[in-house]
């Protein structure tokens, strides 16, 4: 998830379908990164990232 131009990440996180294992959730210079592993068998499983952005 990327912050709009001129803003920086001050928080964030992630969520996923029941069969998704979240491996990492961390800031990056321009937003928030979430890494996950799909432990299920469905191509409908998903992972979602959220970045909370603010002016520096």
Keywords:
56 residues; two-stranded antiparallel sheet; 0% helix; mainly beta; 61% strand
Description:
- The protein is an all-beta fold and about 55 residues long.
- Helix content is about 0%, strand content about 60%.
- The protein contains no helices and four strands.
- The chain has strands at about 10-15, 20-30, 30-40, 45-55.
What number is the mean pLDDT?
Answer: 93
Estimated share of beta-strand residues: over 45%
Largest sheet: 2 strands, antiparallel
How would you spell out the order of helices and strands?
A: EEEE
Rg over CA atoms, rounded to whole Å, is: 13 Å
Beginning-to-end CA distance, first to last residue: 18 Å
Output the structural class. mainly beta
Strand order of the largest sheet: 1-4
Shape: elongated
Counting copies of identical and different chains, the oligomeric state is single chain
State the helicity in percent bands.
under 10%
Say how many strands there are.
4
Instruction: Indicate the low-confidence ranges by residue numbers.
Output: none
Number of distinct helices: 0
Write the layout of secondary structure elements.
Layout: E1 8-16, E2 20-28, E3 31-38, E4 47-54
Antiparallel strand pairs: 1-4, 2-3
Give a short overview.
The protein has 56 residues and is mostly beta strands.
């Amino acid at each position: 998830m990327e912050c709009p131009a001129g803003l920086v990440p001050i928080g964030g996180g992630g969520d996923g379908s029941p069969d998704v294992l979240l491996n990492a959730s961390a800031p990056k210079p321009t937003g928030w990164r979430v890494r996950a592993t799909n432990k299920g068998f469905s191509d409908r499983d998903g992972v979602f990232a959220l970045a909370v952005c603010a002016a520096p």
